[in-house]
Every structure is written in structure tokens, then in C-alpha cells.
Amino acid sequence: MMKLKQVALVAGELAPVRRQVFDILGLEADYDDPGVGAFGLRNSVMAIGETFVEIVCPKEDGTTAGRLLERRGGDGGYMVLLLVDDIKEVSQRTEALGIRKVWEVDREEVSAFHVHPKDIGAAIVSFDEMRPSDEWLWAGPDWRDNESKHVGGITAVDVQAGDPEAIATKWSAAFGKSFHLEDDVLLMPLDEGEVRFIEAVDGRGDGVAAVEFSVVNPAAIITAAENHGLTWSGNEITVCGTHFRFKDLV
Question: What is the 3-state secondary structure (H, E, C) of 121-159?
Fold first, then answer.
């Protein structure tokens, strides 16, 4: 089992991005995870149904997130986190592929590791096994009380690359999932959610480009976006340097 569980974005300033996301997705509370301090970051983790959006912001020099802000010219996508039911199987598969781990934890309630973005391509990827499996440690103990009112969950993440097929091939091998071409986009379905591989055409290089959400309250989303002065392109707006796409928005 492998589910798309969380997408992390990186911002140069946390407060204004946090307010935008709160208003657009219909949130009233989040979780500030003290654990990210070990990476030189502060953050906001927001519950979107059974999935999560995280905003990270460097609080010191020399962080991976800070270097990404510089490399990609501002705010943008940072990381993709997957819920798995057998972390040992995933670990063995990625190690056999020569994919390095850049962080790993093994505790009673969670076993997880991050893989090197240079080895898998485009972004940091985290594989996480939770115990019990219906919890999500990184969102704190009360995330079910703080869910979004405007959207139902993350349904897809877009990863852009100069060579989308090459990145799709690497992710497919690491994930143990196949991909296929559909409507000119390379899709890799997961047990919940999907990863879409698209061509990088904005000059920002490889990385997380978009997050797709199911919609609960379309009118509220549209009003909030207008209040923040955001411009629509079809069913997408840009928040934190990342396209927020709203599935079936009318």
C-alpha cells in the first residue's frame, strides 16, 4: 500500500503564505512541528481531509530549503510524503537502486526515511509507515479537529522536469508503481492519489509544480482567491510559487 499523504512547500516568509492557504482552503488551525527545527526550519502542517499541506520556512542559514529557494528563484514545491504499509520493503527496493537516504527514523509510532533528491530526481521524497496506520504523526495529535472546510483532500501532485519520462522512470522504480501516458501527461497512480510528471516550461527547473485538491465549497474558494488578489488560470491559482488546482471546480 502506498498513499499520497502530504505535500510540503517552501516559503521565504511563513506568515503571509500561511494566511493565504488558511483562507483559500478553509482552515482555522494548524500544527507547528518542533521536530523540523533539526533541519533549521519552522513550519505549518494543515489537515486537508486525510491528507496534509505543509509550509516550511528556513529559520537559519545553510538549510536545504533555503538553497532550494535560491535555486528555484523563490517560493515553491519542496517535498512529497507517502504513507506505506511496509517500510522495510520500500527501503530494500530503494537501496537496491542505489538511492541514498538523507534522513531516517525508527520509533514505536513511526518508521520513515527521506531519499536524496539527486538520486530520485526533482524533489525530496519521504516514505513513512505509521503505527497505527490511520495516524499521521507529523500533523500532531489533534489534526482531525482542524480539517479544511473548502476542500476534501489532495488528489494529485505534479512534478515538473526537463525530462519528465526520466524522472517518472526513477520514481516508478523507487515506488514500485507503474506509470502511463494519459492526455499527454505521464501518470503514476498510487493506492490513493497520483503523481503527474510534466515538462518544466517556466524556467524554474525540476521540482514540485502543483497540488490538486478535491472541492467541497467552490464558491468559498473563489471568493477567498479574489480577496487575496489571485488570478485564475482555468481551475488553478498560484500560491507559494505552486499551482493549486481544484478538481471539478465550477
Answer: CCCEEEEEEECCCCCCHHHCCCHHHCCCCCEEEEEEEEE
